[in-house]
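Please, structure for the following, as tokens.
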Amino acid sequence: MATAIRSQLPGVVFSSDGLSAANTLEVWRDAVSPVLEALPDSDVLDIRAECYMVDRILVNRNRVGRIRYRHNPKSTLHAHADLILLQYYVGGFEELVTDSGSHTLRAGHVCLRDWAHGFESRLHGAEQFGIAIPRELIRASDWMYRCAPFLSWPASSARGSVLAAACEGLWSSMAAADPKEAPALANGIVGLINGFLDSDRAVEGRALQDATLEAMKRFLTANLDLPELGVDHLCRQFGASRAKVYRMFQQEGGVHAYIRDQRLDRCYRELTLPRQGRRPVRQVAEKWGFFDASNFRRLFQKRYRLTPSEAQSLAERIEPRRLHGPSGDSSSTGQLYHWLQSL
């Protein structure tokens, strides 16, 4: 059931108090379904979750009794929900199985995980601070995916203590945070993680190029509504030659392909909005520059393995139900569902 929010930032608080284990699992499973499959592991399920959207990152503190999770990046509704997750465990433990091996995360440990890799886990009274960050904000995300999808440190170590303090500090600031401060708070924790990972991958010679490429991507993403957006805009904005821009976007398939894919992502998000805020497929496609219906359908299906109409239908089938408690107050886990879907 929903309880009071203690911050001016957009927030969701969920507690299983007063709910049966079956109802708790039903509501929680729906809320986290964009990125996780929640499975029963006990006849008793105790969950307390408090989450806040801080600019583009999701900050949370969770306490979960016994539950199992499965994450398969290829089968989640939001096909591009690629996240880098920082976690600091302060109670209980989590048993984690990934393609890089098995891990046990106990109280007093900090970990950084790349959710582009699948995993299965079992929680045993785990209490943790969590910070979910879209991978596009992490400069070394490609290196992390290839070389270090799971990193862990004791909170007593030099690096672990810095990250643990950052998690606790960011969380403690939620109560007094003003929405205008959200970008600065988010940039602080993202900058810290980028600093650590940049040193780990030992490619200082490429740091400036990577930063420039990320800045170019951010510029393109912020201006997707410009009809003629392309290489010329980047050349003028960043003082770069066309040859340099072509070279920097080579791994993305080119500037045009990157812009097209970002616009398709915007279409996907709008087509899977709640029913009351959703527009027809044709209107969404034309809004983002796809005026040929058959070509849009082909591109969309190639990227998501779903047609636009199928994406809408899938979203409707798994749209979270809202649970009404004895007092008539509605669970706000539906809001958490849509936040997770939009990351």
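The radius of gyration is 21 Å. The chain has two domains: 11-203+331-342, 205-317.
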